Amino acid sequence: MADDEEKKRKQAETDRKRAEVRARLEEASKAKKAKKGFMTPDRKKKLRLLLRKKAAEELKKEQERKAAERRRIIEERCGKPKNVDDASEETVKRVLREYHNRIIALEDQKFDFEYIVKKKDYEVLARKNNNNNKKKTNQCCNENVTQMCERLLGYASLSRRRTASATFGKELEK
Fold this sequence. Notes:
- The protein has 174 residues and is mainly alpha-helical.
- Helix content is 83%, strand content 0%.
- Helix 3 packs across helix 4.
């Protein structure tokens, strides 16, 4: 009987120790869960709202910056509008000639830029074809490409374009 009581006492002590260990483990797991649960659903919603507001503000600032840049570029390229409401006929003609000369210069620049782009596209295509045919790219020299571009793309020289557009000013004087 003493052995039975001794066994029961030892069994009770081991059960008590197990329960104690189990309780400590449960407390530790609860503490870990509490640390992991920092971002509650309410906090997540608030954070999302803050992020959306911040993104909206950044987008608005970017749009304002782009609009200001666009206004600045337009003003730079077009110049300030001339007041011709109370101007004489000669002043109006002078302003028209200035605008016309500016348009001609801009059209010349546009044409030259388009030509350069077409020429580069043609050079890329020629080099691509040369690479496809396993030929060296040195066979396509710049002078030949320029001549081919002028012939194929119909590039008119700058002086020919200017003489053709110079008649506008003479028509105004008549």
